[in-house]
Recover the amino acids of this structure.
């Protein structure tokens, strides 16, 4: 006979809480700072938005598929352990991607200018290291070789994709290359028009000076060169003037042509053969340049592939662990205690983002081995994922083969579509996800442009997580004052106010006060979603309906918002991105009460709950009948006993 396995609910809840704490802490150490790392690599806002949008869409598609497959083959624990290991490895692979833009190497990460962009300062944050001597050394030989006639045609293609060089004579006897930076506006877009005009003037001066030396039959002496690099970091599109591309070739080949005119006919034939060879080489170089990809686009596609693989590895973790834990508690009739583990995830996120910001702010720009301190975020993520492995080995999991999760999601989507108020809540969740992606992706960029460092960013985001975790303490009082529909309007309006506030930042700590509104923008939203799930879903299907809302807001909405937000930030700047998100949410907050007033309130008849209520009433009536029969019997017994006592007492008196 098979022994029944004992279920320890307290132990299961404790292990699940620790696991959620570690997983959310690991993600918070890296994910909020990931777009800032992409900025460090040289990706513009549009490419950053595409990468983050693809990440959300991969999670939208792969999470339910992986959950169904892990349940079908009964490999949930294997999927959880494999997800932890593979996601940590994929995150570390992203460190192998090298930046493409030119940055100055400075010794101090904290520069006093709060309005400078990432090319002027490193702000005590992820831009702690520069591309350094390797880039400067690669630019210097190409600039020096632009004077030689034999390699003149190859200079412009080698330098133009990355930097725009302004050449000016120096008094020093040796050639030097110095990198300089262009001013960055508040929206993060550089202007290189002045640098290019200076470049053209300097090149014309150099050309006239060189021709004058040839006319005097003197030995051609070229002065040393000073190369200053102008990089459009935020936009990620270096602008190079067309006149600069042609000018070095003309100035360097003019003396050669004057000398070739004095050669004999035999040398002219040799020159013709060399010219044909040069033309053939140019043709092959042109065909090769068509096949080769621009360095920035190559960086973009490489980052996109790595992030997609990383998301494929980490997406199954949350759904698989939640399904196993819920079915474990449901088998012990303790599924009502499943929601108690969610608050530990928010606390772990607060500790992760705040601790990572504090730790990185204490480090120097370059840590051991010359590694940028931005890599510490990835190492913390990998370390916490490894720390969660022992907990995952003992995580309580249960397989209930009677539950069909795929059909449950489809039924949940039909339930949401069939209720007008649930549909309005779903549209609100989608719009909040679209606007929230702008905050998640580019808030740290805006803070960095106003002088914030890792410490300011980490603590500000930690305040947001703590305020969201504190909303259940206010939910009871808020429900007495406002209906769930009005609370939904308050949630969308709070996020709109946050976005509008972020467009007017003025200092490093300016974003911290607005994070308190996350208590209503996020906490109130998911509280209303929970009530809506209980309203439209039958018992046991609330989680499926909630996952529909999560997919609409945090995955589909965030994906669409990342795509749109990146292009808006690229075209109009970060300030107008936040203002546009705020205006869109405010317009919806005006329309939402009118739509709720027109929508009929159709409360779904829950027959199972009615049957449960009828069963309770029947049991209460039966217990009342039993109690009445018992009381009647006891009264009869008392009356009979009292009458017999009276008869005996009368007999004694007669005797």
């Amino acid at each position: 006979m098979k022994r029944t396995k004992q279920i320890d609910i307290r132990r299961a809840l404790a292990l699940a809480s620790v696991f959620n704490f570690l997983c959310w802490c690991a993600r918070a150490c890296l994910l909020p700072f990931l777009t800032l790392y992409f900025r460090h690599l040289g990706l513009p806002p549009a490419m950053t938005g595409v990468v983050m949008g693809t990440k959300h869409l991969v999670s939208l598609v792969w999470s339910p598929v992986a959950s169904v497959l892990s349940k079908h083959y009964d490999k949930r624990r294997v999927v959880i352990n494999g997800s932890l290991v593979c996601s940590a490895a994929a995150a570390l692979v992203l460190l192998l991607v090298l930046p493409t833009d030119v940055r100055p190497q400075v010794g101090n990460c904290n520069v006093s200018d709060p309005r400078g962009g990432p090319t002027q300062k490193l702000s005590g944050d992820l831009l702690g290291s520069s591309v350094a001597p390797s880039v400067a050394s690669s630019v210097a030989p190409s600039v020096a070789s632009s004077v030689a006639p034999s390699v003149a045609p190859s200079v412009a293609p080698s330098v133009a994709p990355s930097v725009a060089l302004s050449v000016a004579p120096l008094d020093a006897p040796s050639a030097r290359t110095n990198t300089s930076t262009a001013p960055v506006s508040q929206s993060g877009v550089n202007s290189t028009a002045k640098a290019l005009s200076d470049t053209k003037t300097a090149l014309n001066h150099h050309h006239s000076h060189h021709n004058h030396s040839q006319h005097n039959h003197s030995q051609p002496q070229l002065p040393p060169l000073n190369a200053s690099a102008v990089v459009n970091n935020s936009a990620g599109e270096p602008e190079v003037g067309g006149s600069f591309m042609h000018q070095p070739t003309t100035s360097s080949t003019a003396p050669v042509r004057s000398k070739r005119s004095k050669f004999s006919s035999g040398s002219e034939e040799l020159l013709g053969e060399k010219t044909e060879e040069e033309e053939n080489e140019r043709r092959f170089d042109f065909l090769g340049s068509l096949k080769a990809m621009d360095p920035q686009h190559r960086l973009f596609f490489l980052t996109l592939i790595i992030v997609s693989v990383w998301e494929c590895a980490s997406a199954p973790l949350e759904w698989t662990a939640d399904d196993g834990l819920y079915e474990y508690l449901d088998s012990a009739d303790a599924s009502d205690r499943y929601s108690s583990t969610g608050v530990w995830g928010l606390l772990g996120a607060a500790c992760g983002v705040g601790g990572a910001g504090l730790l990185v702010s204490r480090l120097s720009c370059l840590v051991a081995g010359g590694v940028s301190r931005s890599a510490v975020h990835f190492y913390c993520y990998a370390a916490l994922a490894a720390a969660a492995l022992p907990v995952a080995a003992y995580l309580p999991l249960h397989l209930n083969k009677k539950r069909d999760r795929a059909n449950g999601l489809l039924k949940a989507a039909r339930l949401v579509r069939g209720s007008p108020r649930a549909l309005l809540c779903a549209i609100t969740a989608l719009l909040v996800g679209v606007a929230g992606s702008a905050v998640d992706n580019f808030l740290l960029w805006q803070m960095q442009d106003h002088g914030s460092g890792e410490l300011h960013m980490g603590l500000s985001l930690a305040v947001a997580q703590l305020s969201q975790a504190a909303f259940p303490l206010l939910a009871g009082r808020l429900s007495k004052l406002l209906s769930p529909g009005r609370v939904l309007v308050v949630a969308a309006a709070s996020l709109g106010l946050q976005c509008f506030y972020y467009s007017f930042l003025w200092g490093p700590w300016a974003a911290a006060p607005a994070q308190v509104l996350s208590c209503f923008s996020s906490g109130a939203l998911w509280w209303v979603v929970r009530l809506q799930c209980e309203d439209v879903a039958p018992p046991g299907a609330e989680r499926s309906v909630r996952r529909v809302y999560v997919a609409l807001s945090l995955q589909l909405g965030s994906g669409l918002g990342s795509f749109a937000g990146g292009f808006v930030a690229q075209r109009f700047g970060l300030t107008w991105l936040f203002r546009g998100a705020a205006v869109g949410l405010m317009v919806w907050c005006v329309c939402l009460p009118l739509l709720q007033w027109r929508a009929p309130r159709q409360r779904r008849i829950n027959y199972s709950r009615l049957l449960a209520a009828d069963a309770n009433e029947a049991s209460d009536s039966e217990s009342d009948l039993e109690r009445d029969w018992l009381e009647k019997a006891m009264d009869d017994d008392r009356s009979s006993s009292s009458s017999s006592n009276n008869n005996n007492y009368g007999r004694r008196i007669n005797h």
About this structure: The beta strands are 176-177, 226-227. The two ends are 73 Å apart (CA to CA). The chain has a mean pLDDT of 73. The longest helix spans residues 607-654.
